[in-house]
Each structure stands twice: as C-alpha cells, then as structure tokens.
From TrEMBL:
Biological process annotations from GO: p-aminobenzoyl-glutamate transmembrane transport
InterPro entries reported in the protein's UniProt record: AbgT
Record protein name field: Aminobenzoyl-glutamate transport protein
Regions that span the bilayer: 26-48, 81-100, 112-132, 138-154, 161-180, 208-228, 257-277, 297-320, 340-359, 379-399, 406-424, 436-455, 476-494
One Pfam family cited in the UniProt record for this chain: ABG_transport
Keywords for the protein's UniProt record, in alphabetical order: Membrane, Transmembrane, Transmembrane helix
Keyword Aminoacyl-tRNA synthetase tagged: no
The keyword Nuclease is annotated on this UniProt entry: no
The organism's taxonomic lineage, starting at the top: Bacteria, Bacillati, Bacillota, Clostridia, Eubacteriales
GO molecular function: secondary active p-aminobenzoyl-glutamate transmembrane transporter activity
C-alpha cells in the first residue's frame, strides 16, 4: 500500500495519470498529425510569419490542407517513413546488438560487470556510460538504454529505473562528454558562420567547450545517480512484472567465448583504425578530416557500431556453440527485426507527424519568435544567460534537432551576445545546456518513441505519462545544477575549452 502511495502520489503521479490517459503512442502521433494539419491551416489563415535570421527571407506558415499540401501528404508518405531519422539508426544498430544478445555475449559481459557490484556504483556507471555514448552520435539510444533496464533487472531492481538512468545520461546529458563528439564540430561551424556577421575573420574550433563539458560529465553522472536513487527508484518501487532477468556465474565456456569476442573486437577495431588513422584513410573526407563536418566516418558511425557488436557476437557464439552455421546467424538477425515490429509501425506514424510539422514551418516560427522575445526583454548578465538557457530548453520541446535549432538561433544570439561582450563560444555553451535538459521530456524528440517501446517490454501499461513523469526529475535537476555550474564558471572566469573564452 505504501509503495503504491509513493508511486502514484504528488505532482509526478498526477503527470503520470494525465499522460497515461492519452491514447497509445501510435494513435497519439496520428492525432498530433491531424492537429498539425489543422493548425497549419489556422496559422496560415492568420498570416503569421517571421524573418529568417540567416536568409532574411520571410518564413510563413504553410497550409498543409491546400491542394499542394494534400498532394504531398499522400505522395510523400513512403519517403516520410523511410526518411524518418531514427528508423535506420535503430534497425541497423539492432542487427548487431540482436546477434550479440542472442549468442549470449551481452549476458556474459553483464555477468562480469554486474555481479557483486554495489547498486549505487552500477547506477553511476549506467549514467556515465550513457553520457559517453554520445561519442557515437545516437547509438546510445539503441544500445545503452535497453542495457540499463537489463542491468537493473539482473540486480533485482526495477528495470524502468535502469532505463531512466541510461536515458538521462544519453539524452539529458547529450552535450556532456570526456571526449569530443560529432556534435562539437557541427555546432562550432554554425557558431563561426554566425560570428562572421560581425567579424568576418572569426573562427571557432570544435574544442571551445571541451573543458566545461568534461566537468559536465561528472556533474550529470552525480546528479543523475542521485535522482535515480532518491526519487525515481523509490517511486517505482519493487518490480512485479513477469519478465525476469537472471544471471548465474560465468561458466568456463563463456570465459572462452569472451576471449574469442575480445580478439574479434580488437581485430575489428584494428580494421577501422586502418580506415581512419592514416591521413589519407578511406573514411576521411577529401580534406583529410575525420570528424569535422560531414565525413565518411561520421556517416558510417551506425554500421560501425553494428559491426562492433555483430562480429564479437558471432565469435562468442562460435566458441560457446550458440552459432553452428550461417543459418543460426541469419535466424538471429531475423529475430532481432521481429521484435522491432511495434517500433516500425510507430515510426511510420511518427515520421508523418515530424514531416508535417517541418513542412508547416511552425517550428521555425516558434524558434525565431523565441529569439525575438529574448531580444526585446533587455536583460543582461546572468539573468540574460539563464533566460537564454530556459528559452532554448522550451524551444527544444518542439524542435529537437540540435543543429537545425542552432542554425536558426545562432545568427540571432551569437551577434547579440557579441555586442554585449560575450564570446560566441560562451553563447554556444549556454545553448548546449538548454538543448540537452528537455530532450528526455519531449514526446516530439525522435527517439522518444523507441524508449517507450523498450519500456513496454517490462510493463505493457507504460505510456507517455509514465515516461515523462519518470524523466521530469532528471530534467529539472539537470537544468538547475547545470545552469548553476555555468554561473559559477562565469563568475570565476574559468576556461571553457581550448580556443574558447567567456568574454571577447
């Protein structure tokens, strides 16, 4: 009775109840698609428009119920589905992860990592691994989030608490990392272009936020662990679902398989090192760049991740006998896709909604309007910085892509902050906080649907309300503590990264 009270009480319980009264995610995305169509007509009818900060062109809401709009709805339905960004990422990565799972490799690894480890240490490791997975772009959503659930289930804890901890690290701490990720050069390029509006010779290196993001990695790990242990896990209570994950001691055969898998992994890494390390490596672009801009290596990240699971998984299976011939491998690949049927159906509807929302220009209008709002309130110093983080977080609820959003906001805010004496690198830093902290509570975030699909494996009654109410404490805690750290950095004038500064 007490556990039920903890789970359903308070504001989080109210959010969960309200959210779970919403229809199934597939139905909800269909309803949102219809609402977007109607809203596009209404906003277009009102003649609402904004001036694009980059092109200077007038951006008007597009009526999707016009003759051309209806034609696009039907003629581009298939491309909306196949072009839905998370679809290919999830399916390709799951091919490799699925084989590694079914051969027994992942379970054997979990035995080594989990058995005997303290719960709190496991929680911190899950959050930290989620943060570090951002080096591989979006692969963490597919790999780390379900693994977080499995790890907690094995420890006899609620698997949704593990899923939440991993999701918080992967998405809520998206910009933090000990290493440079593919996001750093992408944002730096947009920041430099915006700074050149006032200074034609201004340049921004990908490393300009690195020191701050290294510190942020430890902050998000600590805060994420605290929220999991003190708020999320107690609220979820004891797991009473039917799906039970159990681990026995590592067997002699599994130790042999792990050795084979390690050798296979090292050989695979060596192969990709051969393709990337030389200055003229095949996966470098024509300028010899590896991660700066759009390079073959960056574009190949998902299949690389898949192979890093697939090849060691096959090697493990050959050693322990779970792979006897090529038919076993083909069966494992097929089984991996069978389990993704629900997600594929969800991706079709979500893909239509995302396309409609982009076509309507409503997201762009919201972003530019938010920027104009900050320009008109005449704040300076810390209040301006805090408000900028909050507005960015709000816009992120509707326009999830970090690069697309920054492409719209940077030309407005980078010159504005430069005129107030703040360096473009610092403006980019503040943006990255707001862009990260609300990812985990936005149903419009592309990977939100796949997280729900993972959660439904353990609880068929999980809905949007369950996930939002579970992740909201992380979002609030990250926003407060990360912003406070930014303020401390600001007042102490600490270096934010090589080549970066707070003031011009």
């Amino acid at each position: 009775m007490e556990k039920e009270k903890i789970k359903s009480g308070g504001i989080l319980g109210w959010i969960e109840k309200v959210g779970n009264r919403l229809p199934h995610p597939i139905t909800l995305f269909f309803i949102l698609s219809v609402i977007t169509l109607i809203l596009s007509w209404f906003v277009s009818y009102l003649g609402i428009s904004v001036i694009h900060p980059v092109t200077g062109e007038t951006v008007q809401a597009v009526n999707l119920l016009s003759r051309e709009g209806v034609q696009n709805i039907f003629s581009r339905a298939v491309s909306n589905f196949t072009g839905f960004a998370p679809l290919g990422t999830v399916l390709v990565a799951m091919l490799g992860v699925g084989v590694a799972d079914r051969t027994g490799l992942i379970k054997a690894l979990l035995k080594l990592l989990v058995l005997g480890a303290p719960d709190r240490l496991i929680t911190a490791a899950v959050v930290f691994a989620g943060i570090m997975s951002n080096v591989a772009s979006d692969a963490g959503y597919v790999v780390l989030v379900p693994l977080g659930a499995i790890i907690f289930a094995v420890k006899g804890r609620h698997p949704l608490a593990g899923l939440a901890a991993a999701f918080a690290g992967v998405s809520g701490g998206f910009s933090a990392n000990l290493l440079l990720s593919t996001l750093d050069p992408l944002l730096a390029g947009l920041t430099a272009e915006s700074a050149r509006i006032l200074d034609p010779n201004y340049s921004v290196a990908p490393t300009v936020n690195w020191y701050f993001m290294i510190a942020s990695t430890f902050l998000i790990t600590i805060v994420g662990t605290w929220v999991t242990e003190r708020i999320v896990a107690p609220r979820l209570g004891k797991y009473e679902g039917k799906l039970v994950e159990k681990l026995e001691e590592v067997t002699k055969e599994e130790k042999k398989g792990l050795l084979w898998a390690l050798i296979a992994l090292l050989l695979t890494v060596a192969f990709f090192a051969f393709l990337t390390v030389p200055e003229n490596g095949i996966l470098r672009n024509e300028q010899g760049q590896l991660i700066q801009g759009v390079t073959p290596f960056v574009q190949s990240m998902v299949p690389i991740i898949a192979l890093l699971f697939l090849i060691p998984g096959i090697a493990f299976g050959l050693a322990v006998g779970t792979v006897r011939n090529n038919y076993d491998i083909a069966t494992y690949l097929s089984k991996s896709m069978e389990e993704m049927g629900g997600y594929i159906a969800l991706a079709f509807v979500a893909g239509q909604f995302v396309a409609y929302f982009n076509w309507s220009n409503i997201g762009t209008i919201l972003a530019v309007s938010g920027a104009e709002f900050l320009q008109t309130i005449n704040l300076t110093g810390i209040p301006l910085i805090v408000m900028f983080v909050i507005v960015t977080g709000f816009i992120n609820l509707f326009l999830g892509s970090a690069s697309a959003k920054w492409a719209i906001m940077a030309p407005v805010f980078v010159p504005l902050f430069m005129q107030l004496g703040y360096a473009p690198e610092f403006t980019q830093l503040a943006y990255r906080i707001g862009d990260s902290v609300t990812n985990i509570i936005s149903p419009l975030m592309p990977y939100f649907a796949i997280i729900i699909a993972f959660a439904e494996k353990y609880d068929k009654n999980v809905g949007i309300g369950t996930l939002i109410s579970t992740m909201l404490p992380y979002s609030i805690a990250f926003l407060i503590t990360w912003t406070l750290m930014l303020i401390v950095w600001f007042y102490l004038l600490l270096p934010i990264g090589p080549g970066g500064s707070i003031f011009l």
